[in-house]
Amino acid sequence: MPTARAPRIAIVGAGPGGLTCARILQQHGRAVTVFEREADADARPQGGSLDLHADTGQAALRSAGLLDRFHALARPEGDEWRVLDHATGALLAQRGPTAGGGRPEIDRGQLRGLLLDSLAPDTVRWDRAAAGVTPLAGGTCRLLLGDGTSEEFDLVVGADGAWSRVRPALSPAVPHYTGVTFVETGFDQCDTRHPELARLVGNGSLLAKGVGRTLVAQRNSNGHIRGYLALREPQDWHTAAGLDLGDQRAVREHLLEMFDGWDDSLLRILRDSDHGFVSRPLHVLPAPHAWTHVPGVTLLGDAAHLMPPVGLGANLAMLDGADLAHALVTESSVGAAVRAYERVMLPRSIKAATGSAQGLDHLVPATAR
């Protein structure tokens, strides 16, 4: 009898979820191609620090055979939290690292590098943006690329984030604005250049909350601290204020006015940063978000269940990637694997989305509590 053809699998997006899926597939001898719109692995900074949970992100890395390498890079001490009163700067609460080091921190860039280094050469096709997918008769799927070319696969996995080009093949859902914007800034060489802020933040993260305003400062590796100003404001808050986001001096002055009355020690995050300010409106997918199974295509991570950034997104994306990969190597067919994966992933993501929405309301309260 002729040997069955190995399934052709494409993953769109080289984030933690897609790369975890690719790594586990390769561990089991399965061919996979990852399409990524960025020009190369160093095209842009990957963002701040993540705490990987034992039952999700770390479980996925264990499945991928990468947990020891993760622990060599991770910072267990980064799981500390300090909560300060926004008006006085007084310490309200302090939490040390989770018992047993259950949620160590790692920079997003380090995590991505760890996953990329684990893949076979040329697994990732850089500078290959997806334009969309078209399900075909017989259960396959055509991946349309930004350069006008296309390729056919037995499965296309949309791991391409909030504004997924794969999602429309399954669902008409589009992300909507939460009413909260994060304004990001940063500090370099904090222990020597910004020692007061370094002491204030400690080894992990600092939090101070007012009504509709929250400040978060998060220690990253190599002496870097990222600051986040969370605002309950319209998405075009800067336009309404007549601000050009490129005019960093004017943005800084306006933000200081928005945080008038806050303790001066906390205002260092606005006043003394080494970097400019980047506005990041937070979007989410409707919850619950689900779809009817379509042969040849599925989603994972933010493409499937975009949530507020309160500590679950990357962890769930990696668990999604691991679950999908294991289904593909254990089920009798691609179709059976995707159905098995979606039966687990969709209910899990619906529950997590509800919790994340509540977490955002707690992080940036709309009223005094």
TrEMBL record:
Residues where FAD binds: D51, R108, D302
Cofactor: FAD
EC annotation from Swiss-Prot or TrEMBL: 1.14.13.-
Signal peptide: none
Pfam family, one: FAD_binding_3
Annotated FAD-binding domain residues: 9-77, 297-330
Catalytic activity: a tetracycline + NADPH + O2 + H(+) = an 11a-hydroxytetracycline + NADP(+) + H2O
Subunit structure: Monomer.
PANTHER family (alphabetical): FAD DEPENDENT OXIDOREDUCTASE DOMAIN-CONTAINING PROTEIN, MONOOXYGENASE ASQM-RELATED
Identification of the protein by name: Flavin-dependent monooxygenase
